[in-house]
Write a structure and sequence with these properties.
about 15% strand, two-stranded antiparallel sheet, three-stranded antiparallel β-sheet, about 40% helix, alpha+beta, 8 helices
């Protein structure tokens, strides 16, 4: 990533973006700019990105020439190439904007976190000087409603024991565990015993984000992101079709 600076007014600007031998700004640089743009503005709006780049004050004469009406498609090609290379972390919204995939959020943020920190710092310092209540908004959310009674029954039958590591947590004298749907309800998975695992919070998160999975080869070997066996699943074993879905659609993605 290029060097960045903040002036006395708290305005951001970037110095010396990396360029190819012919003087063009590198695609990797635009990839980072898109990441930054999304974190600063919430979403990536292709129609407004040109103005955003202009506002950074990083363009040279060659860049301005490529941004003229005649040559703009050439310049836009490099932006589109950067967006294409980011296809694994970008999610297209219904309004034509793009946001960061929830599963890829942390990785995308870490690549530009130092820059984001510099951008946000003046805002945070300003807010810290004020006393204010958080803004409240009314939203409508559509989500799958899980069967709480069934979830509790499954945890009780399995003694609140994590089926990965065998841990049983105790909270105020009672066992604590979480039910994980191997094929998520949000992916049209069924709210059924055969689609459930009882897990500790740590392994629940790792399963949700596809950092670990059950191997569909034997439906009992738990593997890490490199495919290395780390545990053997404690029965009962979920239905194979749910194991295969998680492995192929979430773990392998």
């Amino acid at each position: 990533m290029a060097n960045y600076e903040i002036n006395s007014k708290g305005e951001k600007y970037i110095n010396s973006p990396l360029r190819n031998q012919d003087g063009r700004i590198r695609t990797n640089y635009f990839k980072d700019l898109i990441r930054i743009y999304i974190f600063v503005n919430g979403v990536y709006k292709p129609s407004e990105f040109k103005e955003y780049v202009q506002s950074l004050g990083i363009l040279k004469n060659i860049d301005w020439e490529l941004m003229t009406t005649r040559n703009y498609p050439i310049w836009k090609h490099h932006i589109d190439a950067a967006k294409q290379e980011l296809r694994q972390i970008l999610v297209e919204n219904q309004d034509g904007t793009f946001s960061i995939s929830e599963r890829k959020f942390n990785d995308a943020y870490n690549k530009v976190s130092d820059y984001i920190e510099v951008i946000e710092k003046p805002k945070l310092e300003l807010l810290e000087k004020k006393e204010y209540l958080p803004e409240k908004v009314t939203t409508t959310i559509t989500r799958s409603v899980r069967d709480t009674a069934l979830s509790n029954k499954v945890k009780e039958e399995r003694n609140c024991q994590c089926q990965i590591c065998g841990t049983t947590l105790s909270i105020k004298g009672k066992g604590y565990a979480e039910t994980h749907h191997v094929k998520p309800l949000g992916h049209d998975g069924l709210d059924t015993n055969a689609n459930m695992l009882v897990l500790c919070p740590n392994h629940h998160v790792l399963f949700d984000y596809g950092e670990i999975a059950i191997s569909p080869k034997d439906c009992k070997t738990v593997v890490d992101k490199e495919g290395i066996r780390i545990f053997t699943l404690i029965p009962p074993i979920p239905k194979k079709e749910y194991i295969e879905y998680h492995y192929n659609k979430i773990y392998k993605k």
